[in-house]
From TrEMBL:
PANTHER family: NITRATE/NITRITE SENSOR PROTEIN NARX-RELATED, OXYGEN SENSOR HISTIDINE KINASE NREB. InterPro entries: HATPase_C_sf, HATPase_dom, Sensor_HK_TwoCompSys, Sig_transdc_His_kin_sub3_dim/P. This is Signal transduction histidine kinase. Pfam families: HATPase_c, HisKA_3. The chain crosses the membrane at residues 38-59, 71-99, 105-126, 133-154. Residues 285-331 form the Histidine kinase/HSP90-like ATPase domain. SUPFAM superfamilies: ATPase domain of HSP90 chaperone/DNA topoisomerase II/histidine kinase. One of its GO terms (molecular function) is phosphorelay sensor kinase activity. Residues 186-247 form the Signal transduction histidine kinase subgroup 3 dimerisation and phosphoacceptor domain. One of its GO terms (cellular component) is membrane. Keywords: Kinase, Membrane, Transferase, Transmembrane, Transmembrane helix, Two-component regulatory system. It comes from Micromonospora yangpuensis.
Length: 369
């Protein structure tokens, strides 16, 4: 189960403040202008609509804005119909604070202005002193402005941190693949030099010894024969070494995947790679890019704090499983990122599956080579 973070705790605190402000009406200390059940219904509508607007991240943006508008309108009715409830205008302050998560700043400022007017109307019903009324309305208006600007600043900072984290992941992946390419080029250079120099020399040695074997030198014949076999063995070993250098993986898969997820701000990435997993250069590059995309998507959409990546041998395939502890998705919609992952696995003859039931889970398989 996902642990509650600061955002969730702050939202819970705001909810408790609103319930506390409404409690005088609920317990019968203050009588509203409408029947108590109607007033309670308006209050519950306000709270449910507000929660849908800010907590329903899987809901379409248009529906979230409609829910927020419903919460604001119902909140006005709650405040106006219970002007003697004391701290009830705090409900509108909380609604204004929710605005940056749903609407743009200009629209949020309009909500603040209208909330201030509604608070002034409600207070005007029980207080005829103009100066005191104006000061109280201005006080709540300033509180709303301060709250909206603070939440907006925090939200922009979080957005910048997410962008920085995505850039960090991209840079880590690029560094890993670049290092692998450099090692590949160096190994190819060494293999060519071994083949051109040592291999050529040993071939010449073999030909010379072969010629010596056919000369009439009975006393040296056995030694020449053994030297000939040794020279051929050395030549075979050199060619085998060259072939291994050319075919071996350029990048350590486990270290490469850990490097992609290392020190990602706001997300703890755990990578486990089985000891029996052997991936060639093409597969390694595809797996690195896939994990890069998974980490980026997790930062952008999941709201997760932990991501676990496991690569293991599964029969004749190499299986990659990535699971986060985020909010998941009732309906998985393939965007550019998920389509890119599917295309990479398909290009290697594999396939990928998604599951958003509990967190978000990606399972991809590629044939072993």
């Amino acid at each position: 189960m996902r642990r509650m973070g600061l955002d969730e705790w702050s939202g819970l605190a705001m909810l408790l403040v609103c319930v506390g402000a409404a409690s005088p009406v609920v317990v019968g200390v203050v009588d509203p202008d409408v029947p108590v059940p109607v007033w309670v219904g308006l209050f519950l509508t306000t709270m449910m609509a507000a929660l849908t607007a800010v907590a329903g991240t899987t809901v379409r943006p248009v529906r979230r804005r409609v829910a927020y508008g419903t919460a604001v309108l119902a909140g006005w009715a709650v405040v106006v119909t219970a002007p003697q409830a004391g701290l009830l205008p705090i409900l509108l302050v909380v609604l204004a604070a929710f605005g940056p998560e749903v609407v743009r700043l200009p629209a949020n400022l309009v909500v603040v202005a209208l909330n201030t007017v509604v608070i002034g109307v409600a207070m005007g019903r029980i207080n005829d002193v103009g100066l005191q009324l104006g000061m109280a309305a201005a006080f709540y208006g300033l509180i709303q402005l301060a709250t909206v600007f603070s939440v907006t600043a925090v939200r922009r900072e979080k957005q910048l941190r997410r962008e920085l984290a995505r850039a960090h992941v991209d840079l880590q992946a690029a560094s890993v693949l670049l290092a692998g390419s450099a090692r590949t080029a160096e190994r190819l250079r060494i293999s060519r030099e071994l083949h051109d120099l040592i291999g050529h020399q040993l071939t010449v040695l073999t030909l010379e010894l072969e010629a010596a074997r056919h000369r009439p030198a009975d006393a040296a014949g056995a030694h020449v024969e053994r030297a000939n076999r040794v020279a051929r063995d050395v030549l075979a070993d050199v060619r085998s070494t060259v072939g291994t250098l050319r075919a071996g993986p350029a990048t350590d898969l486990a270290e490469a995947l850990r490097a992609v997820g290392r020190d990602v701000p706001g997300l703890a990435v755990t990578v486990e790679v089985g000891d029996d997993v052997l991936a060639d250069e093409e597969q390694t590059a595809a797996l690195v890019r896939t994990v890069q995309e998974i980490v980026t998507n997790t930062l952008r959409h999941a709201g997760a704090r932990r991501l676990r990546v496991e690569v293991a041998v599964d029969g004749d395939t190499i299986r990659l499983t990535a699971t986060d502890d985020g909010q998941g998705a009732t309906e998985v919609v393939e965007g550019n990122g998920l389509r890119g992952i599917a295309e990479r696995f398909a290009a290697l003859g594999g396939a990928v599956e998604y599951d958003g039931g509990a967190g978000f889970r990606v399972v991809g398989r590629v044939p072993r080579r």
